[in-house]
Write a structure and sequence with these properties.
Helix content: 25-40%
Structural class: alpha/beta
CATH superfamily of the largest domain: P-loop containing nucleotide triphosphate hydrolases
Number of strands: 14
Mean pLDDT: 87
CATH topology of the largest domain: Rossmann fold
Distance between the termini: 29 Å
Radius of gyration: 24 Å
Largest sheet: 6 strands, mixed
CATH architecture of the largest domain: 3-Layer(aba) Sandwich
Number of domains: 2
Shape: elongated
Bound molecules: adenosine-5'-triphosphate
Amino acid sequence: MTQPAPDTPATPALAISGLAKTYASGVVALHAVDLTVARGEIFALLGPNGAGKTTLINAVCGIVTPSGGSAHALGHDTRTDYRSARRLIGLVPQELHTDAFETVLATVSFSRKLFGRSRDDAFIEKLLRDLTLWDKRDAKIMELSGGMKRRVMIAKALSHEPELLFLDEPTAGVDVDLRRDMWEMVRGLRERGVTIVLTTHYIEEAEEMADRVGVIAKGRLIIVEETRTLMKKLGRKTLTLNLAQPLGAIPEALANWNLALAGDGHELVYEFDTQAEATGVPSLLRAMSDLDIGFKDLNTKQSSLEDIFVDLVHESAAEKHP
Ligand SMILES: Nc1ncnc2c1ncn2[C@@H]1O[C@H](COP(=O)(O)OP(=O)(O)OP(=O)(O)O)[C@@H](O)[C@H]1O
């Protein structure tokens, strides 16, 4: 892929092309992933356990060596121009690993230096205050609670004022306060034009924060959509009616509704969009009553993230092998 010159406004924050990773064990964690994230965007990578989210982030940040393809951070090749790329990147990893014997202030100040930034005590103080770590600045990392350690990881990732921030499952296992602070921080960073790529299992998080969502499954980026569009898909519900008498086929008069028969004709299944102005449920029930189709019971089910994944995986498989 041809890259615009580094650090011009046209340069995407992140440009990934054919990025692949096969671990030594033979596990193919990433199959030639392509992805471009614009500057200032908040992009959520959504996917089930083991989908390849962490591998993708780690391959961009130089923690995992890709087996193929390339990644550019603000125009800098993350392999051939690693140092320039890495100093523009902040990473809050999923696992906490930081020097247990160092103090909070020392470890965060050191991180800034590590990425070539000149000392700025006022900046570090503000950062620690924003993350409610200032009172703990002289505490050793090992003396901190899990939540505080996570705050330290965030402070470290932001210490060198990165332009592209990766948050790997930022809210997994954190308390309500930290979750709220985290989102406030993300909003603040966005206002300053920082690009954010985060991974999550929670669709609500993506919905609230992200401009676009990428769904990753089995190492393939199977869909990249504006969050609004994906939420529309998520807004589907199914109504299942247990019929009094089985039907052999869907009557012609009900052709306007998106219906399917299940359970040997004993169940009529209607899939509808909960976000549409009219769901079509009352009119369907009226039409059934006109046709004398009775039902014994009914239930509704909201499509879950799991269903969406399954649907998307099937759709993408069908596109490839029609
Ligand atoms: N160091 C490793 N060696 C071998 N296989 C690995 C290694 N790290 C990850 N994997 C495998 O690669 C695949 C992708 O893992 P990855 O951690 O990237 O997924 P993930 O989407 O981040 O999952 P989670 O949501 O559980 O964090 C999985 O099958 C995992 O077992």
